Structure prediction request, 666 residues.
Amino acid sequence: MLIWENIKLAFSSLLANKMRALLTMLGIIIGIGSVIAIMTISSSLTNAVSASFQEMGANNVNVGLKERSEDTTSTRSGLNFGSSNKTASMEESDLITDDMIDALKSQMKDQIDAIAISESLGSGTIKDGSDYANITVEGINQDYFAANKLKLVAGRHIKASDLSGSKNVIMVSDKVVDNMFEGSKNKALSEKVNVNINNVYYSYYIVGIYKYEETGFSSSTEEDATTSAYIPLTTAKEQARADDGYSRLTVVSSTVVSDISAFADSIETFFYPYYMGNEDYQITTTTMESMTESMGDMIRTITIAIAFIAGISLLVGGIGVMNIMLVSITERTREIGTRKALGAKNSSIKLQFITESVILCLIGGIFGIVLGFTLGAVAATLLGYTAAVPITAIFLAVGFSMIIGIFFGYYPANKAARLHPIDALRYE
Amino acid sequence: MPNKERHAIIKLSNIVKRFFVGRPNELEILHGIDLEVREGEFLSIVGESGSGKSTLMNIIGALDQPTEGKYVLDGTDVCQAKDKKLSEIRNQKIGFVFQTYNLVARSTALSNVELPMLYAGISKQERHARAKGLLEMVGMEERMAHKSDELSGGQKQRVAIARAMANNPSIILADEPTGSLDSKTGRVIMDIFHRLHCEEGKTIVFITHSPELAKETQRIVTLSDGMIADIREGGRIC
Prediction:
């Protein structure tokens, strides 16, 4: 009952000094607002990252060769495997062979939908007069399309006969078409393009055009963004004069697989006997799940660090609240004296002023949440992510602003409660 | 109505009050006051400035405690009471009327009267009904919803008297209640006190420096230099 009276009292005294209350709240609004804004951006970013990872294939297990280090325990949380520069020191005997893949396929027939293989030929440039487009050329097998969903906008995929005949055909992105053929897909199809990779020229016929999708972390507004182009794996092997075998592949699990991590483990186990005697390399697997997790962890750590800095402004806001509460109490010394003369206990006075400080912070906190979400949503949209509202942040912000109110209101309220009634009544 | 055989509601014996204004200086304001106020009595305390009137009033009002001596208010030993108990005594047994009204600004007349009942933990409906009745008694029912800063001095003092009556206290302690008012308005306030005394049988301790107003009370206690210099019968009896 007294609480409700105190809340009414707090509102009336805050309304009596609107400007002062507003300015004091500003500290809390900015503090809570910046924390919420950062959390909104972070959760939007996390969502975007995990969505783009999911798009890349939640059912995929990436299998790659990893150099054996001193510590032989393999972790699946890293993002560091399969870097192509490792191939330099790889012997042909280290690579995953077609026999191994066939064995894997037959052993886990039910669980495996497809095994996508890609080998990079390298980064290069398609050039025609002053027009150019940056690409990375990937040699792929047919299963590649099962693991990586490419949206075909014209022409066709790489097909079995391209692979068996090691044909010089290429699938390029619509960006390449924009740059080289003024966006005309009809003009581009069946056209011959010359690709310069490390000053070696390769010629391919365009058979398909796919839609280039922006991923969560690629900035793509630039015209000379590098996009992937796909050629038959066999062609790539021939042109690179590469050894037989592969350094990485992607296993697409079928619908019977429910636990992708366990599936990844069983693939590692499958390869174990083949690499038991290999001193330099072992097989390691990563799943999108583990990559999403480690990426999420990274974003979270950064968010906490930034939110902590933003939290300092909250501290400053809290000190502002304390300051204004002290002013308010000095102004109302006689009122406090009167209340005491009328029978208010010290605890009632304390409660009255703590309530006022909590209300002040709570209103500031609510405005701060609105401001923070607005800023966060605008920033997330500008960065190209879908704005996501972290619900826990609301409760956190409300709770936190109440704690600030109690913490910074306690000292002034206690000071008021301990005023001697006579001194308070005499105060001019 | 009030008669002298009634029991003493205020018993002050050998009240001494000293203030310590930095060692070794100490200032003795009251030098052993003995006073009894009977239930239903209308008593005035007069004296020059600096005679110790206010200090005595603060002690009677349980706002302060004596350095020495004993004070029993309506059977409760005030000297032994701690802060919380003193709040209760002020809330339940004493109704204050101040010279400067001391209404809570920004609050309506009604909420001002409800305030002591709020601290007594009385329910909202009861508070409301009682406060309304008290404001009617002092002739302020028309202005119940007005904020205190929208009222004139006389009106404020009437609200303050209604507030003093809120918890039906044992005594009403009025500290120069007409001091800030013109004589006509002061008269209205005095008449309310007489009504409370004669009709409600309230014990009233009235502090004033006006000999004329003091004469209207039943007994006049004159303080001088922190001691009771004179006690005499007043004029007006119900």
About this structure: The two ends of chain B are 7 Å apart (CA to CA). The interface with chain A takes residues 58, 61, 63-64, 83-84, 87-88, 90-92, 96, 98, 102-107, 115-116, 118-121, 123-124, 163, 167 of chain B (CB under 8 Å).
